[in-house]
Predict the structure.
Amino acid sequence: MVDHVAGENVNQVVDIGKGIPDTPPADRPADGPGYELPLLLFGGFRTLIDRLHARLATEGHPDLRPAHGFAMQAVGTQGATASDIGRRLGVSKQAAGKTVDRLLALGYAERADDPADARRKLVHLTPRGYAALARSAAIFDELRAEWVAALGADRVRDLEGALRNVVPAETAFRLDATSWLGAP
């Protein structure tokens, strides 16, 4: 997976098409270089997320972005403060606040007084927010079915099982990807 700008490759460090500099072909790993695995995993993730958002855009959610989905998951069913959301996403309270402000403006969330502490404001998802998450879940099921059609059910199940075996359970569904991707 390499980003392109105006048709030019902007990844000057690792370009799969050029091979590994100063490494004779006989010395390259037969299964592919180690750096390729995380790039392929990320490419698969990015492909699914991009296709999800393309579908959501055609179904009435054109302004919804991946960061919004992470933030809506961080809000949860009980609501959360901007500090809670920031902590769950691994971003600052200010960055979380900007994302929350955008969700409010788009009608996916609303703020309300915290019944346990009048000094705090809780963010809750609106019916539109819940509808977007439900639609996202359905689209992910459809995208998985496309992978099954392309790869076969056994291979997709094997892939999922293998990833469950190597991904620590406590990190399998962490929401803080934005903290290391640098996107609030």
Q: What stands out?
A: Helices lie at 36-58, 66-75, 82-89, 93-106, 127-151, 153-166, 177-181.
